[in-house]
Amino acid sequence: MSRRLAKLRAKAKENWPDDDQQMHQQWTVKVEKAIPGSVKCTKAACPHKKKGCTWMFGPAEMELHLQECKFRPYRCIGSKLKILSCGWQGIHHQIEDHLREDHELGEVFSHYQESWMPFSESKSLGGIKLVNAFSKHFLFYYVSNVSAKMAYFMIIYFGRREDAYQYYYEFDIRSKDEKDLRRIKFVEHCVADCDNLAANMAQEKCVAVSFKMLKHYLHDGKIPFRFIVKKVGKRTSSSRE
Name one GO biological process term (predicted). Predict the structure, then answer.
């Protein structure tokens, strides 16, 4: 582990809250005590001000901000997605350094990437990869669900929802046989890491493919795919071809 990351971790643990809900409750109490009866129209500094956040919001906006604040307490997203067993705790903007330095994720994917993922009909599998696109950092996430007989793929943006939705990706699954022209193509918006990713998968707001369909495209027991991360020029709806 680098000295820089060790210092960041130590600093992040200062005044560490039990969870985001506790932090929000602490913030609400402080504002109500400061200006009784006027909390609804009062702006206050983010509870993470001491860690570097300079934003100020009213109560309704603050609740949303606390979900996205880059200085908020953060646990390893690999653990959250149940891909990695990791007890790391830090601040949101440290997650990329943590994934690079503390986990062996292999090559960093680019905005245009061809690769493959393992497949099994009897065992649920999953994986994550860092993605560098437009000088921004994303996370490629794949998971298969044996019970549902479905495989899910999504590209996650590290940051605010508003920024995440400025990007989308085209995702292809195609046969490795050059004579076989069949392919499945998806176009989906990137999602933010503060989104409810489990709900997105349940509602198929991502690339969602049945095992039955995937079996037509397997190559040596692997799923060959290609994706391109793009910036939204005009409103792009999710679609499948």
Answer: protein ubiquitination
